[in-house]
Design brief:
Layout lengths: L1 H22 L25 E4 L4 E5 L4 E6 L7 E4 L4 E6 L5 E6 L4 E5 L4 E6 L6 E6 L5 E6 L4 E5 L7 E3 L1 H4 L5 E4 L5 E5 L5 E5 L5 E5 L8 E4 L5 E6 L3 E6 L5 E6 L5 E6 L5 E6 L4 E5 L6 E4 L5 E4 L2 H6 L9 H7 L10
Antiparallel strand pairs: 1-2, 2-3, 3-4, 5-6, 6-7, 7-8, 9-10, 10-11, 11-12, 13-14, 14-15, 15-16, 17-18, 18-19, 19-20, 21-22, 22-23, 24-25
Length: 335
């Protein structure tokens, strides 16, 4: 009968639930048809930890809302503070014994590691903190969260220099980075517009709208005024930051690449994949033009400066169109 069939199905579900709970290392809850769950990506919700090999020290956060410091060889923390929120981002200041910790409740704490005290707590965000960037002089820092808000502060100041909301720039930013001269912020997010922000005024410019091609993350090339965007399928594009003009395309042959880092000299690039693997590559030389200044100083640059100076009658190419027209700029070999 229909009733007996229904009871069999229910018993089967119960037995299945018991088996899942028995073999799973974490507690799980069944989602029935017509129900759904929402949450942030797992990479944004893990407690953070950093290691200082020079001082042989580990600074870590946990789900209980505490941040602690301990020696690498010890299991006992040297000190511990309750932040009342899980530390998702830990960013040390190199010139002072300070550290900035961003939490899942939108708070950013400035901690003095010497006195083991919280100096200041900033509440500029409504969602979990996704990234904290500090400029080269260690005087100003920028924060962003999963709520899309971006804030710039001077170390020790009570009020932010400026705050940008996602309604202002029509996107969702999860990562920010200062230019080498600290005058410009480069901001990006998963499948979001890539924008640059004047650090003094807070005015922004969309240099790569997402309708031109999806972006995963954007980063400055070291000590340069141009940047690179990682796209899906491991494609890396290089752009001039004011115009957003592409001057080079590289295919990494790593379709699951989700992040990347440049070496300090800008000659190598490290790709990080969703599978947890890393690939270190030599970065192809793109600076094909030599410039000798009147004072004798020599610089190298890609030829995009000449392309930018020419009047453009046609619209800028979208990423896929660019790739089709420039098939010669292909992948590079692993080092």
């Amino acid at each position: 009968t229909d009733e007996s069939n229904t009871s069999k199905i229910e018993r089967h579900k119960e037995n299945l639930d018991k088996q899942v709970q028995e073999f799973s290392p974490i507690s799980l809850q069944r989602i029935d048809p017509g129900e759904f769950m929402m949450g942030s990506r797992n990479s944004t919700s893990f407690p953070h930890a950093i290691c200082d090999l020079k001082d042989k020290n580990i600074l870590s956060a946990d789900l209980s809302g505490k941040v602690r410091s301990q020696n690498i060889s010890s299991n006992i923390p040297e000190w511990e503070l309750d932040l009342n929120g899980t530390g998702l981002v830990i960013t040390p200041l190199s010139t002072k014994n300070y550290v900035l910790v961003g939490t899942d409740n939108g708070k950013v704490h400035l901690i003095n590691e010497s006195t083991k005290r919280i100096i200041s707590t900033y509440s500029d965000h409504l969602g979990p903190i996704s990234h904290i960037a500090i400029n080269n002089s260690q005087q100003i820092f920028a924060t962003c969260g999963t709520g899309g808000r971006i804030a710039l502060r001077t170390i020790g100041s009570e009020e932010p220099e400026w705050v940008l909301n996602p309604q202002d720039y029509k996107s969702d930013i999860e990562y920010v980075e200062f230019s080498h001269d600290s005058k410009t912020l480069l901001a990006s997010g998963l499948h979001a517009n890539v924008i640059t922000i004047d650090t003094k005024s807070g005015k922004f410019n969309t240099v790569w709208p997402k309708d031109k091609g999806l972006a995963l993350k954007a980063k400055w090339l070291p000590k340069k005024n141009y940047f690179s965007i990682l796209h899906p399928n491991g494609i890396l594009s290089f752009l001039e930051y004011k115009s957003g003009i592409i001057y080079k395309i590289i295919r990494s042959n790593l379709p699951s690449a989700c992040d990347f880092e440049f070496s300090k000299d800008g000659k190598r690039i490290l790709f990080i994949t969703e599978k947890g693997s890393c690939s270190l590559r030599e970065l192809p030389v793109a600076e094909s033009i030599l410039i000798i200044r009147p004072d004798g100083k020599v610089e190298q640059t890609p030829d995009f400066y000449f392309n930018v100076s020419k009047p453009k009658k046609e619209k800028s190419l979208e990423l896929e169109t660019f790739l089709l027209k420039h098939q010669d700029n292909v992948s590079f070999n692993e080092s």
